[in-house]
Amino acid sequence: MQIHHNLTHLKEGISQTEELLAELQNYSLLTLFLDELNYLKTKLPTSYRIFTKEELLYDYNGQNGKPLYLATCNYVFDVTHHPLWHLGTYPTLQLGLSPLDYFQLYYQNDLKAAAEAGPIIGKFLTY
After folding, report:
1. pLDDT of 77 higher than 80
2. CA Rg, the chain, in Å?
3. 70, 77 in Cβ contact below 8 A?
4. Hey, which residues does 70 pair with through a beta bridge?
5. Shortest CA distance to 87 belongs to which of 105, 63, 106?
6. Are 62 and 102 in contact (CB under 8 A)?
7. Cβ neighbours of residue 60 under 8 Å, at least 6 residues apart?
8. Global confidence as pTM
9. Which residues touch 91 (CB under 8 Å, ≥6 apart)?
């Protein structure tokens, strides 16, 4: 009888520990999410200009002294001075892609990584 009581008590303790671990895991995920959200807020401008695909392809393409603006995740980034993008070292010609299309594929909707390429300067109008 005493052994059964001890096993029941031990199972209850394990169950409570598992519940506590689940709560801690949820808290850790929430903390990571909030940290990432706060980081991204530092990268976002307070007001946005809206850019179309045509503008990015023709007016902000990095050619003839123009700045290079590329978009992903519905945001536009100024990547004019980023080492990978400003020198035109991306393999778009081999793939038959524009720099804009390649940028979108390269970052695969990873807003945080894209924000490392350059500051967010506006919103990308998708239609």
Report:
1. yes
2. 24
3. yes
4. 77
5. 63
6. no
7. 51, 66, 67, 68, 69
8. 0.61
9. 102
